[in-house]
Model the fold of this input.
Amino acid sequence: MRNILITGGTGYIGSHTCLPLLKGGYKLTIIDSNVNSTPTSIERIKKILKNNFSENQISFFKGDIRDKPFLENIFSNAIKENNPVEAVIHFAGLKSVSESIEKPLLYWENNVFGSICLIDIMTKYECRNIVFSSSASIYGNTSFEPILETSEIKPCTPYGYTKVAIENILASIFKSSKNSWRIANLRYFNPIGAHESGFIGENPLDTPNNLFPIICRVANGKMNELQIFGKDWPTIDGTGIRDYIHIMDLADAHYAALEFLFRNKPQILNLNVGTGNGTSVLELVNKFMKVNKCNVPYRFTEKRLGDLPFIVANNTQVTSILKWKPKRNIEQMCIDGWKWQQKNSNGY
Ligand code: NAD
Ligand code: UD1
Done:
């Protein structure tokens, strides 16, 4: 069984990605500081898989990627056990845009310095395969065209800058190692929803800022109303348009990226991972209420600082290179996300 290190693997995207990887027969070494998650997600993954995996396929170690001795132990123990880490899927990072504006140093320290520690130890142990969690927030899109990978890189928040910095570090490592690394920077658009079982899902430990978890909380009465930021954007109904992608489709994209890297020569891939379809805030709220037969009271308020009207992926690259396609529609995202919320109204 090929051993894959999953940093940040108990978090939202990491936990969902474990499922296709375990089904695909990989051994997973999961590390997480649990600054924004809990290891309970791993117990839930096991519950979903029932008997269709072996216990020695998953190990979890609580620790921080900035702690190099901790990382060294992971890599050296894997060698001692004759199962060296062959690739890393690097999710670990802080992701709140507003917090990154308030505490930029924390973001540079955690995300960028943390990634440097990880890449350093990977280099030392000759592990040169990595799938990295990048973000659509690196683009400075002001047009109404779907975004290409070659679009201008112009983040507008410290969070976005940390993602650009990590991509740049990976590019320079690639060059300095005479192109011996295999790197996939997956630039996610807006992942929402949950695994169809409702056993795992998004579990923000603080008050959520993103639209979908707020809709879920308003629907189950944990929050009074949704504030819709702006009603006069130049869009079909005046509200902001985003490219929402089902979390399990995003999970499958990681599986496809990893397999692609293993099958192919060393290279760097930059891939937009989205559906290519735009949905407005009002469309999402109305669909959520309709398919889940529930009420989401909302009120229009001022525009949020830094928001853009239209952020949608051109996903031609990812679909043609990885032979991956998103399969689940907005209705499915709303149904699965609501199921998770109802089953776990207080999180894990
Ligand atoms: P998450 O917070 O649920 O998961 C991130 C995990 O990393 C958490 O479990 C957290 O405890 C862990 N972590 C943070 N800093 C760490 C450190 N120094 N050492 C070890 N563990 C650490 O977030 P997510 O939504 O699953 O996001 C995963 C990755 O994808 C992040 O890097 C995020 O920036 C990126 N991303 C997320 C989105 C999104 O909309 N969710 C969009 C684009 C990119
Ligand atoms: C936000 C971040 C982005 C990050 C992404 C995923 C900002 C400006 N952008 O993107 O950098 O990559 O999250 O973590 O914070 N909305 C409301 N009311 C709300 C919340 C959101 O109307 O209470 C609207 C927004 O204006 C937007 C849409 O819903 O039009 C989606 O917002 P959100 O879920 O926060 O995602 P992004 O803005 O795409």
Notes: The pocket of uridine-diphosphate-N-acetylglucosamine (ligand 2) is lined by residues 95, 97, 135-137, 160, 190, 209-211, 214, 226-229, 240, 242, 281, 304, 306-307, 311 (CB under 6 Å). The longest helix spans residues 104-124.
